[in-house]
Amino acid sequence: MVQNPRANPGSGGITAVGRRLTPAQASRRARLVDAAYALAREGGYGAVTIDGVCDRAGVARATVYHHFGSKNHLIAAAILRWGEEIQAAMRAAAPAKGDLLERVIATLRSVVDAAEAEPQLLAAAMQAVATPDVGVDETQRQLSSIVSGYLETVVDPEGALDTHVLGMVLGHVLFSSLIQMAAGRRTPEEVMQDLAMTAELALGRR
């Protein structure tokens, strides 16, 4: 795997050399993420090649390494986009019924359903995020923040929970469970059983 040692694993507003993106650079970066996302949906991890991404995005190889340190870093950015899309969909159809535990479980069910509906993308995501890549590490933290933010604004708008801790705990169990699901070792229902038990423990229901 080729990796750029200068790569900055941070947000989309920074280049690989630590400079702010110009509008043109931001547009090229977005095209790269879109291309990786589409290729991963179509064919999984193996379908995301640097040449394939460049062809679909209409950019040179050097542009990829200006923004991303590796293939896995690029896929991780695409997964972050996927996570943001799932979050937006959940916000649009937030669970309105049930107590706090039931709303948390309904939220987790939405994530598992979304993952089950995109098996190739899920497999690519799990393979990429399992690598010791600094860009991937940052993406995992950003995904945990998405979970925490959703719990805070939708599931617990009154602020009764420590949503950062709850999001971190549930995020870790969710990530581990999705790896097992992507590998065919756990069914979606078994994953939900694990997540429901974790939510019960975290909320003091057991």
Molecular structure report:
The longest helix has 22 residues, at 71-92. The protein has helices at residues 23-43, 50-57, 61-67, 71-92, 100-117, 119-129, 134-155, 163-182, 188-202. Mean pLDDT is 83; it is low at 1-11. The protein is globular and about 55 Å long. It is mainly α. The protein starts with 22 loop residues before the first helix and ends with a helix. α1 (23-43) crosses α2 and α5 (100-117) runs antiparallel to α9 (188-202).
Summed up:
The protein is an all-alpha fold and 206 residues long. The chain has 9 helices and no strands. The longest helix has 22 residues, at 71-92.
Features:
206 residues; mainly alpha; 9 helices; 0% strand
- Strand percentage lies at under 5%
SSE class: mainly alpha
Integer-rounded radius of gyration: 18 Å
Number of extended strands: 0
User: In which range does the helix fraction lie?
Assistant: 55-70%
**Secondary-structure element order, N to C:** HHHHHHHHH
- Uncertain segments of ≥5 residues (pLDDT<50)? 1-11
Euclidean distance between termini CA atoms? 45 Å
Quote the average pLDDT. 83
Coarse shape: globular
Q: Sketch the major β-sheet.
A: none
Q: Helical stretch count?
A: 9
